[in-house]
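Deliverable D5.2: sample structural annotation.
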Amino acid sequence: MLHDLTLPVRLSTRSGEVTLRSAAPEDLDALMTLLADDPISAGRGDVADEADRPRYAAALDALVTDPANALLVATEDRDRLVGTMQLTRIPGMARQGATRLLVEAVRVRSDLRSSGIGSAMMRWVTDVAAPTLDVGLVQLTSDAARVDAHRFYERLGFTASHVGFKYTVGITDRRRSGSRPGPA
């Protein structure tokens, strides 16, 4: 599974090199800050609030211990986190049983966007991770409001081929309040 990926790896960018490695518990603060650095994520509640720390810590633990998932971080010198992405390997029946690699939550620190970090990360996914994991398709979703991100992915050879749908269950609110749904 995803443990077959050889990490850490150095990636060349227009602004120098970054190291791509698996996320670790000590990355939690930087990950929370990186999510809050994105206006769309911040609008959904990712505001790096200390009260949310236990939920982020639980999510990080779930990701790093699940063999079908990898949460990766890109770091500069002195291990300063500058980017992240989540990879999920999904076996499937469609496309003659093709396995997919889902790329989610790609983020680069706002002051470093357009420096080549995101391109280097995504090229590594398509050129190294996908063949290593023997997947037939790399797929991702991007919020409809992320017009710049859409152009970015198209420049990298991705095709806007599907319309995605989401349904919010509301579990976030129940976790925060500690309540659980009762009988109807």
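Annotation notes: Residues 177-184 have pLDDT under 50 and may be disordered. The beta strands are 9-13, 16-22, 69-75, 81-90, 100-108, 137-140.
The annotation will be released with the project's public dataset once the embargo ends.
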